[in-house]
Amino acid sequence: MSAELAVVYAALILEDDNIEITADKLQALVSAAGVEVEPIWFSLYAKALAGQDLKALLLNVGAPGAASAGAAGAVAGAGAAADAPVEEEKAEEKEESDEDMGFGLFD
């Protein structure tokens, strides 16, 4: 198991038990699991997760605009996501048209 993954799992355990995420508590959990992690990771993750609602972050993974603007951002992000497939289809058509001309890598 990687060091970063062990610290993330420890943070999830603490959040699940509604315990404040601190470097000392992360280190205690990872040490109890028998995983060797450099001490810098505990303080980095503790600072990064300080004041964050980890459950809300997990529930909104992949939701457009969820981290910054909420519902308005989600609506705008959904509109932008709806436009993206059209542009991708056009790009694919251009690539196919090059192949139709008979030009290829091994011709």
Explain the overall architecture.
The chain is mainly alpha-helical and 107 residues long. Helix 1 packs across helix 2. The relative contact order is 0.09.
Question: What layout of secondary structure does this protein have?
Answer:
Layout: H1 3-16, H2 23-32, H3 39-49, H4 54-59, H5 71-100
Write a compact overview of the structure shown:
This protein is mainly α. About 65% of the residues lie in helices and about 0% in strands. The protein has five helices and no strands.
Key descriptive features of the protein:
mainly alpha; 107 residues
Uncertain regions spanning at least 5 consecutive residues: 69-83
- 3D shape: elongated
How would you state the average pLDDT, rounded?
73
Gap between N and C termini: 48 Å
Gyration radius, to the nearest Å?
Answer: 23 Å
Total strands: the figure is 0
Category from helices, strands and their pairing: mainly alpha
